[in-house]
């Protein structure tokens, strides 16, 4: 699709690229890592069949964001046993799957890390290459589980080579989105779409807050949450203009958000991405 607008008397042509993000609103099998990842693979295959460019899991999907009882002997130590290294077969299966499906995949998991595990997302591009691994910076330390983890220390943005062209993608996780600096840092690093795995009830205030993160940073945002009864669904995506692209109900399913990003032309090899919302 080609559109145009006028800047200081000059007509500038824009090529619009549609990028589809699949929000995988899945119900976990507790902390059964094998069963959860088998389900994630099925959902990824279905998302690819529906034309998705990127598939995103909810927060810490490997263990279904299952908490431990801090008053139970050895519960914390048992929790740590479910941690996975980024290079483990369990995580790398999604590198292989991404390449097979020609679709980027954001896999979320309890990451093995020294001295304590992390709440992480690894993003694989459609060629199976790791773009980045991001660990939640603003851990929810009011929960014993997250207080027992190592917080991340940086926000990452990477280039995804999608079928429609290249896009700069960043990530934040759940409580990160409640801190305005998270999305602002990602925008300053060039993020055009911010992927946000989530694990909590999403009510009006939090949804409005997430919408504002898109508008104030002129960047698309996409969030995947857990369905009922774990949480209340409401996986959602907003364009940089604040337009709601998709809003899930509380049911398990795949919810597709189509982001329209604009490039200046004429040369595809030397095009500059416009940060102007497409509705401006």
Features:
single chain, about 280 residues, alpha/beta, seven-stranded mixed beta sheet, six-stranded mixed beta sheet, 13 strands, disordered N terminus, disordered C terminus
Q: Specify the overall morphology.
A: globular
Number of helices: 6
Which structural class matches the secondary elements?
A: alpha/beta
Specify the helix fraction band.
Answer: 10-25%
- In the predicted model, the low-confidence regions spanning at least 5 consecutive residues are 1-13, 264-280
| Number of beta strands | 13
Mean pLDDT: 89
Structure overview:
It is built from 6 helices and 13 strands. It has helices at 33-49, 75-80, 89-101, 144-147, 180-188, 204-217; strands spanning 2-7, 10-25, 54-56, 104-111, 118-124, 130-135, 157-162, 165-171, 193-197, 220-224, 236-238, 244-247, 253-264. It is globular and about 60 Å long. The model is unreliable at 1-13 and 264-280 (pLDDT under 50).
Provide a short characterization of the protein structure.
The chain is α/β, with parallel strands linked by helices and 280 residues long. It contains six helices and 13 strands. The chain has helices spanning 33-49, 75-80, 89-101, 144-147, 180-188, 204-217; strands at residues 2-7, 10-25, 54-56, 104-111, 118-124, 130-135, 157-162, 165-171, 193-197, 220-224, 236-238, 244-247, 253-264.
